[in-house]
Amino acid sequence: MNMSWIWRKVTALPVGRICRRLMQPGMIPIFISMPQPKSVAESSQALFPDEGGETILNMRKQLLGNQSFFSDLTATMHKVGQYHDIHDDWFQFLYLVTRLAKPMVVVETGVFAGLSTAFILQAIKDNGRGRLVSVDLPAENVIVGSTDRMHDSALPPGCDPGWIVPPALKVNHSLVVGNSQEVLPRVFEKHRAIDVFIHDSLHTAAHQSFEYAIAWSRLREGGILLSDDIFWSPAFHEFCRKHRKPYLHVVEGRGAVRK
Ligand SMILES: C[S@@+](CC[C@H](N)C(=O)[O-])C[C@H]1O[C@@H](n2cnc3c(N)ncnc32)[C@H](O)[C@@H]1O
Q1: Are 113 and 162 in contact (CB under 8 A)?
Q2: Domain count across the chain
């Protein structure tokens, strides 16, 4: 165990996060034993060891050079008056995983403004194949355990989940509205084998465990399960331990595991 890294982690945490961690004593061993976070490039390379670094770099350049994609997102945020961090490294990682896995079917839970959705759909467009199914229970008001730690914790009045997604990308998209506990079994009746699953809906232990388990049963061998907010509950760590699958800790607080 790297004590100096742990010490740097603890001292770098804002006071609020330290208090939250201390209020969840069950998370302390997980926090101590978690793998060190990797950057977008390191995580992509670790998940796709057969891909050359050059390929990954070029895909990332293609995304970052896509001015119309970023200016569309910015223009829509200005129009709606709600602002989100479109440069979060996690979105670049979602784009790269989708490019590198070349999935036919991706399922995500938790849409909100639709930034993760937009980056995955841009990757699907750049791949020239694939479909994204998104599941969301619209946050008309703040949802504790989900949107309560976000700067804007509810949808802007009159806006549906995914309001930021550029209309031209929606051709490869289906949005299913409802609680994922009710909706996912129906989604997986239709899509019996999926390539990538991303959890980012309700981060309680019970809900995360439910989503990981049902998604895992439908992921094809070699498929990828990604999760945002893996330190909100012990669920992701327990799930990976149960399946004896070491996970990647991606850009601080996100996880990736291959089936
Ligand atoms: C953190 S936001 C998702 C952000 C989005 N993935 C992104 O990165 O751009 C969480 C979303 O999950 C939705 N949600 C909360 N509880 C849910 C549930 N039980 N089933 C499905 N979606 C849920 C919320 O309404 C919200 O839209």
Answers
A1: yes
A2: 1
Each residue's pLDDT tens digit, 117-161: 999 999 999 999 999 999 999 999 999 999 998 889 999 999 999
CA 201/CA 184 separation, integer angstroms: 12
Q: What is the DSSP letter of 13?
A: S
What is the Cα 212 distance to its own chain's centre?
13
Q: Is the CB of 34 under 6 A from ligand 1?
A: no
Residue 203 lies in a domain: yes
Residue nearest to atom 24 of ligand 1 (CA): 139
Decide if 24 is inside a domain: no
pLDDT tens readout for residues 25-53 = 788 888 888 899 999 999 999 999 999 99
User: Which helix or strand (DSSP H or E) is residue 107 part of?
Assistant: strand 105-109
Answer yes or no: pTM beyond 0.85. Answer: yes
- The rounded Å distance from CA 4 to ligand 1 centre is 35
Residue 20 placed within a domain: no
Residue 140 belongs to a domain: yes
Vertex 133 angle, CA 131 and 135, to 5°: 165
In single-letter form, the type of residue at position 48 comes to F
Check pocket membership of 134 for ligand 1, CB cut-off 6 A: no
Q: How far is the CA of 137 from the centre of ligand 1 (A)?
A: 7
